[in-house]
Amino acid sequence: MPIDWGPLREIIDNNQRFLLSSHVRPDADAVGSELGLAELLESRGKSVRIVNPSALPTNLAYLDPQNRVKKIGDGISIDEACDVDVHIVVDTSAWAQLVDVGQVLKRTNATRVVIDHHVSSDDLQAVEFKDTTCEATGTLIYRLYQDMGAQPSEFAATALYSAIATDTGWFRFPSTTSETMSIGAALIDAGAKPHVIYKELYEQNSLARIQLAGRVLARISLDCDGRLASIYATNADFRETGAVPADTENLVNECLKIAGVECCFIAVEQRNGQIKISLRSRSNISVAAVAEKFGGGGHNQAAGVVLPAPIKEAQAKILAELKSVLARGDGEPSAS
């Protein structure tokens, strides 16, 4: 169902100071949507700050040459973040993914707004503009541009193209539609350069990342007659290769290249000892439902969760749940 942008236009017209935020460990859809929205608001004479719970990943630095994207507590305090008229959260509506930004939302007197496309959702007590059938939050921001009669600049077009291209697996996921391709074409006409964006995203790897990938992928384990694949990365792996946790981005997708694999996950040990789990599916298995069972969420075919447990224990929990789902064949997690 198409979103009625009227209430958001009214919020924009009647307020001046805006704060934009997204989820922990922001991806290109999160950051691209923030930067694209920031330009739209600033074209209307608004004051905009962008603050996330995590620092900008190095592979997305090309999107933010002016270093506008700040981390809460590093460049802006919680009190400063609260001092705005409107706080817009993009690409998530889950408390668990907001971390310190969640503290801002709980304390602020600002009008709260959510622009999101994920299935998983909490009540952030916000005015929601949500379409779970949409392939990317970047698409929603582009539609807002259209609704407001605006044209993205080359900078915004690059941000939004990056958002949409990455969340559609470079336009190969089932969520890709003819509208997706039309928007991509319009963004290219506005100045986005796909060959440059692809190079920045996927062809700027460090030697450490390649060495980490080799080590992690050598551990691929298959279960359920080859239908389930899993890999993991430990802090020792990062120390010994010189890589960082962000270097595991997209490694889980390599598991789906194995014939017969229907779902997979990677367990990544964080510096604080918690375990980040990223899950993927290319069948009727809803990995979002699996992630939600442990306090996470996402899309039916791409989801994540952070578990406060030793890596072997975290792996065992996710493995057992996915085995149970595959054994039943209904795509739903167990009730227990």
Indicate the radius of gyration in whole angstroms.
20 Å
Report the count of strand segments.
13
- CATH architecture assignment of the largest domain: Alpha-Beta Complex
Would you list the SSEs in sequence order as H and E? HEHEEEHEHEEHHHHHEEHEEHEEH
Distance between the termini: 34 Å
Question: Overall pLDDT, averaged?
Answer: 94
- Main β-sheet, spatial strand arrangement: 4-3-2-1-5-6-7
Quote the CATH topology of the largest domain: inorganic pyrophosphatase (n-terminal core)
Poorly predicted runs of 5 or more residues: none
Strand content: 15-25%
Coarse morphology:
globular
The level of helicity is 25-40%
Broad structural category = alpha/beta
CATH homologous superfamily title of the largest domain: inorganic pyrophosphatase (n-terminal core)
How many helices? Answer: 12
Tally of distinct domains: 2
CATH class of the largest domain: Alpha Beta
What this model shows, in words?
With 336 residues, this protein is α/β, with parallel strands linked by helices. The chain has 2 domains: 6-201, inorganic pyrophosphatase (n-terminal core) (Alpha-Beta Complex), CATH 3.90.1640; 207-328, Roll (Diaminopimelate Epimerase, Chain A, domain 1). The chain contains 12 helices and 13 strands. The protein has helices spanning 6-13, 28-42, 78-82, 100-107, 137-147, 154-167, 178-189, 194-202, 207-217, 235-241, 287-293, 311-328, and strands at residues 17-21, 47-52, 69-72, 75-76, 86-90, 111-116, 127-130, 221-223, 228-233, 263-269, 275-281, 297-298, 302-307. It is globular, with a radius of gyration of 20 Å. The two termini are 34 Å apart. The model has no long low-confidence stretch (mean pLDDT 94).
